[in-house]
Structures are given as C-alpha cells and as structure tokens.
Design a protein that fits this description.
Length: 214
C-alpha cells in the first residue's frame, strides 16, 4: 500500500527500547521471544501473505488514512478463494507480509481480512517496534523499508526457526534461488483469481504436509 498516490524482527522491552527478538501475536497480546531460538513447532505450516496483487489488484491507495481500490472490483475480492483453499488445511497459519502492516499497523491490517483468515494470523514481518532504535527513539526509515520482500520473509523465518513455509506475492525481485520452490508468484493485476496461481499455492501447501505415520 502506498500513501497519497498509489497504496502499495525486532521487539521492544518494557522500557520501550528495542530488543533483538521475535515479535509474535497470540491473540492476547504481543509476546517477544529472544532470537535466534525457535518459537514454532517443527510441524508448523506458515503462509507469508501479501495483500496487494494477491487478494485484490495492485491498485490500492491510502486516501485520508483509509485504503481505497482505484480500479475495477473491491478490496479483498479474491480473499474468499484463499478461505476456500485453506478450509481443508487447518494447520496453516498466516504471517502478514505486506506494506499494509507498515502503513496501517499490524492490528488494523489484520482486521481487513475475513474472519476465516484473520483467525489464522499469528504475526507480521513488520512490527512498529522495528522503527524504535536502541535509545528508544523512532526512526522514519528502517531496514524493513529498504529490504526486498524476500529479505523480510527470510529474516522472520530465520529468527523464528521456520522451515515449513510458503509465500504468495507479486514481488519476486531478489528471491533466492534456493527458496524459489517456496514462492507462489502472482500477476499484480489478477492475483489469486488466476487458476494457475491458486493451483500452485494449493500444491505448495500440500507439499508442506508431513505424511501420517503408518
């Protein structure tokens, strides 16, 4: 999400200073885990989810503080396709990988999702604490702002000890060759409405599933 025109981990301690940890949301507040310890179960399946160019066309503008889609259709018009796909995959959890979390805050961005997806969200590659330096002062520019989408995801996955993850995004720039099998690249105009993208996402997620012991 981009401001004005087109809309396109660190934690904090109790004193407000930045800490070198993972920030996760478990529904009852933010919890900070020290890095690099793993904070997810080995069997956890995570979907890093972009909004623009995935759940609606990449034509969202922030107008007077509110997201507006300036093209045919409506915001999150393809979200029901993801809801249906995940219905048979209850173990999949979602981490927001979108500029919406930066522009609106994590909580506001999450609230835009339908309840079936909202309830799966456990975190975001962006957290407001990332703009707080070690002196407790806020910086306008952060590492996250300059990083590629792939770098943002890899940092989160690495610090949280994630191995079973897939990302769906319309920004493939800088994606590491070793992780191309974890990316579902969408067309910014068609997103998940493209049957090929939807089928690939289903296949990628199914591939994360652990076989049942005999």
């Amino acid at each position: 999400m981009r401001r004005g025109a087109q809309v396109g981990t660190l934690g904090v301690n109790e004193q407000g200073a930045a800490t070198d940890g993972i920030v996760l949301d478990h529904g009852n507040g933010v919890v900070i885990y020290p890095a690099p310890d793993s904070v997810y179960a080995v069997s956890t399946m995570v979907l890093f989810l972009d909004f623009d160019g995935v759940l609606h066309p990449d034509a969202a503008f922030l107008v007077k503080g509110r997201p507006t889609l300036k093209t045919t259709g409506e915001l999150f018009m393809w979200a029901p396709l993801l809801v249906e796909l995940l219905a048979d995959l209850p173990e999949v959890q979602i981490v927001l990988s979108t500029s919406w979390a930066r522009a609106l805050t994590f909580d506001r961005a999450r609230r835009w999702l339908p309840q079936e997806l909202h309830s799966r969200v456990i975190g975001s590659t962006w957290h407001s604490a990332m703009s707080v330096n070690r002196e407790g002062l806020r910086n306008l520019a952060t590492w996250w702002d300059e990083a590629t989408r792939y770098q943002q995801i890899k940092r989160y996955a690495g610090r949280a000890g994630l191995s079973n993850w897939v990302a769906i995004d319309d920004q493939p720039e800088g994606w590491g060759a070793d992780d191309l099998d974890k990316l579902v690249h969408t067309n910014c105009e068609t997103g998940l409405s493209d049957p090929a993208a939807l089928a690939l996402l289903a296949a990628r997620l199914e591939g994360l599933r652990k076989p049942e012991p005999c």
